[in-house]
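User: I've been trying to design a sequence by hand for this structure and keep getting stuck. Would you show me what you'd pick, starting by listing the structure so we're on the same page?

Assistant: Good idea, let's start from the same input. This is the structure you sent:
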């Protein structure tokens, strides 16, 4: 099958989402350029350097010079570069705004407007939900600076002639650039390593996607671009809306640990929502990796790793 897009630029491609995505794109014969400041170091992408279809540019999405260099010969862009999650954005409010908002503006300013930008936004933009299910037309109500920055970035992306915006569920699972601040990864790590887990707001509903399914969703957009252009999609799966308690109990079926549900504690994003993924399901995209499979692989990794600060994103 001939590809509509051959050479893909991934900003922030050395991160948790970008590394498995790069792997899949290279396996499928795409050329990939990553533009990344390597906030988390180069280890996650070292194995790509032997591949002639891989190019790396150490640079900043806020720099006109770096972005212009990275755009050379590119057919489509997957924009991931960001300071990610509300704890990290709260810790570095100015830097996160500069990267997440101004960096996105710089990318859009530098690009030929006919080049598609596929953008990683988040379901956190819905904030505390009044309706039972969020759809793409549910009014946005960002409660953290991270979510606010993503809403602003979405609006900037929409000024490009060609775009697809993905509002992702919370990721889980293993990636070469590992994140243990994500809820299922965090809970599994604590259950395996610390044998204890204290959980607040246990009935809060959250929605999930495996990190490799996030990569598959981007490839799905490249393959179905004509149908998807100019739209926003919730990306996850209707079958993967779970309460925090359900995740804890799924882990408990596989790991023996002390579980306590507490009355104190608070998620700043107040994420307690169920999301409808009908729009992307109707085009044919579904998650392929279940929460149980994700927990299984997480347990195996947690048993063999020892890291100084598993929550370094926060
Ligand atoms: N993981 C999730 O659950 C999730 C959910 C929804 C949306 N997203 C979005 O997906 C994207 C990727 O998230 P992730 O989980 O891989 O995070 P990550 O922190 O692992 O990756 C972000 C990457 O961006 C790079 N980066 C940071 N600032 C940069 C800059 N100024 N210029 C160039 N590169 C820069 C970092 O070095 C890192 O490699 C983000 O935009 C995030 O908001 C993630």
């Amino acid at each position: 099958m001939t590809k509509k897009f051959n050479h893909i630029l991934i900003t922030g491609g050395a991160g948790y989402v970008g590394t498995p995505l790069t792997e899949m794109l290279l396996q499928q014969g795409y050329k990939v350029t990553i533009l990344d400041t390597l906030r988390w170091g180069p280890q996650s992408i070292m194995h790509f350097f032997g591949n002639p279809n891989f190019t790396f540019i150490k640079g900043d999405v806020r720099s006109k010079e770096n972005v212009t260099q990275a755009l050379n010969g590119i057919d489509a862009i997957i924009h991931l570069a960001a300071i990610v999650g509300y704890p990290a954005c709260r810790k570095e409010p100015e830097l996160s705004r500069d990267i997440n908002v101004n960096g996105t503006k710089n990318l859009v300013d530098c690009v030929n407007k006919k080049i598609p930008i596929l953008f990683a936004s988040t379901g956190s933009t819905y904030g505390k939900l009044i309706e039972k299910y969020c759809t793409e037309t549910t009014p946005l109500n960002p409660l953290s600076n991270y979510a606010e920055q993503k809403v602003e970035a979405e609006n900037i992306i929409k000024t490009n002639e060609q775009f697809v915006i993905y509002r992702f569920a919370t990721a889980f699972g293993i990636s070469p650039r590992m994140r243990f601040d994500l809820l299922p990864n965090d809970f599994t790590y604590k259950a395996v390593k610390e044998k204890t887990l204290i959980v607040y707001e246990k009935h809060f509903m959250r929605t999930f996607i495996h990190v490799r399914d996030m990569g598959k969703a981007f490839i799905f957009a490249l393959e179905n671009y004509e149908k998807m252009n100019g739209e926003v999609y919730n990306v996850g799966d209707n079958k993967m809306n779970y309460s925090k308690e359900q995740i804890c109990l799924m882990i408990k079926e596989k790991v023996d640990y002390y579980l306590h549900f507490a009355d104190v504690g608070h998620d700043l994003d107040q994420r307690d929502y169920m999301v409808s993924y009908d729009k992307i399901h109707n085009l044919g995209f579904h998650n392929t990796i279940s929460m149980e499979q994700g927990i299984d692989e997480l347990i195996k990794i947690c048993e063999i790793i020892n890291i100084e600060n598993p929550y370094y994103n926060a």
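That's my pick for every position. To get oriented when you compare it with your attempt: The pocket of nicotinamide-adenine-dinucleotide is lined by residues 11-12, 14-18, 35-40, 60-62, 80-82, 84, 99, 103, 120, 122, 168, 170-171, 177, 179, 182 (CB under 6 Å). The mean pLDDT is 93.
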